[in-house]
Amino acid sequence: MSSIVTAPTLRAAGNRALSVVLTLLGLLLLTFVIGRVMPLDPVLSIVGPDADKSTYDQVFRQLGLDRPMPVQFGYYLRDLLHGDLGKAMLTGHRVTDDLARVLPATIELATMAILLGTCVGIPLGVYAATRKGRLADHVVRVISLFGYSTPVFWFGMMGLLVFYAWLDWAGGAGRVDLAFDGVVPTRTGLLLVDSAMAGDWEVFRSALKFLILPACILGLHSMAYISRMTRSFMLAQLSQEYITTARVKGLSERGVVWGHAFRNILVQLLTIIALAYGGLLEGAVLIETVFAWPGFGQYLTSSLLLGDMNAVMGCVLVVGVIFITLNLLSDALYRVFDPRTR
Description:
By secondary structure, this protein is mostly helical. Helix content is about 75%, strand content about 0%. It has 14 helices and no strands. The model is unreliable at about 1-5 (pLDDT under 50).
């Protein structure tokens, strides 16, 4: 009996693992090919335009660019299996070390943003759905449309102008005041967590002051998306017959909305929030540039402009792993919140 029960589960797990590997492999192959046909010359980025031909040829061979493209990709996969992503031309350090340094900054920023976006977006979406066609619904829809369609970099510049330059309520560029840079030991890379663990609340307050403005701007963008989707899902549920039945039975409006309708959209919202979070992790390029935030997005942008394919490939791999992990996590949460999927 146990073998009958576990065999489909093992097959499903094997198929899922194979699809994950093939997805990452295809993503790496596509990025590798694009990187090799780009007009940027990584050799010139290293030696400079004034280098002689012998120096150019020497670096060209050191980078392995004299080999056929399939051979280059094969060597890259071999090194990848040993945990080696190569060296970054941008910093001269191993790509794995660079990613370990910049990822926590983006994770801290994106996590704060998605928490703000979720905590505000879901109630707004539910509120708008329960007042469909009224003034409150129109106001929420206009706010969502404005937050979703307005460029993030414009919000960033206006935020710096108002809340930093004029009011001095928020920090400026960077993650923390220069006086506190490097004061607390790096344990997790998350500055709020590290300063709290060290008990240094001055650094904590400074880090929070610098974090809150970019996080609110990113959170506004995700809040607009989450509130729009929440409203749409709730409208679909509130028009169902079981909602009418619950109201006829005398259930309170709060119980109907949150106890019945919202519970039935929770599974859908998990996917929306997971995708929004993944988008924040890999798409916070503009806001990190505006605020000089030393994170993943700024590192990827600088690597692309330099033609540093080792760093770009490492970033692409991280993005792929992030989205695959979030999708797997969403599937697992489905089984927790929706017994029909077990």
